[in-house]
Specification:
Elements: E1 2-13, E2 16-28, E3 33-37, H1 44-51, E4 58-64, E5 67-68, H2 74-84, E6 85-88, H3 100-105, H4 115-128, H5 144-156, E7 162-166, H6 174-189, E8 193-197, H7 201-204, E9 209-214, E10 217-221, E11 227-228, E12 233-234
Parallel strand pairs: 3-8, 3-9, 6-7, 7-8
Antiparallel strand pairs: 1-2, 1-4, 4-5, 9-10, 11-12
Length: 235
């Protein structure tokens, strides 16, 4: 499903170029459940943003389900991402002037789904996440944990091909966190490819493969013990 070849991301400050991703070579097959781990500043969220097609300031090659993303313009990438991916943000990224129900419905607006069906899907999702009583509230009226649940509900409502999650349970109590990870496992069993960034070993255990980043380098891949950590390639 996903192939990255020699992917790099850097930021320039004056005459200095600071790399956050270095020579990433990676293949993710359809149906995998990938966990990305590593210390703060390792490049985990940067890699996730590239996979989500939210960042287009990288170099290298990125192929998604046969489509060469590196050849698309910004609008084409955004259209593809809306249709095929779901993203759970660490900082929620809910739209302040939309209600909970409207935030959750947003991904459905990019698909050719009749209004009645959209409303039914939203109702089912509100019930699934036990937030029916919050449907008419705005994000500012919710706790951090409630906002996180809404963000997850929004990400999965349109049944994306690829689900990306940045610390998806970071603001949830342990029982909620376990329920969300069970939901992710069920989605994965139904065919959704999942890539999560987490510091939680418990969350990582739900995945089928673990990657580790350090200083922008891919240094470990549980599916590839022959990874050369200095070059990010198989030896």
């Amino acid at each position: 499903m996903i192939d990255l070849h020699n992917l790099e991301r850097s930021y320039k400050t004056g005459h200095t170029e600071d790399f956050v991703l270095r020579r990433i070579h990676l293949h993710i097959a359809e149906g995998e459940f990938i966990t990305i781990m590593g210390p703060s500043g390792a490049g985990k969220s940067s890699l996730l943003n590239v996979l989500a097609m939210l960042d287009d300031q990288w170099r290298g090659e990125f192929t998604f389900d046969g489509t060469p993303i590196h050849t698309l313009n910004r609008k084409q990438r955004a259209d593809l991402a809306r249709r095929r991916t779901g993203m759970v943000f660490q900082s929620y990224h809910l739209i302040d002037d939309l209600t909970v129900a409207e935030n959750i419905e947003l991904p459905l607006s990019y698909k050719d789904i009749p209004k009645a069906e959209r409303q039914a899907l939203v109702a089912d999702t509100l019930d699934r996440f036990n937030i029916v009583g919050k449907k008419d509230l705005f994000p500012s009226q919710l706790s951090g944990g409630q906002q996180q649940l809404v963000g997850i509900a929004r990400a999965v409502i349109h049944k994306p091909t690829l689900l990306l999650a940045d610390e998806p349970t970071g603001n949830l109590h342990s029982e909620q966190a376990a329920e969300i990870m069970q939901l992710f496992r069920k989605l994965n069993e139904q065919g959704t490819t999942i890539v999560q960034v987490t510091h939680s070993e418990a969350n990582a255990a739900f995945g089928s493969r673990t990657l580790e980043l350090r200083d922008g380098w891919l240094t470990r891949d549980s599916a590839n013990p022959n990874l050369n950590a200095t070059a990010g390639v198989t030896v």
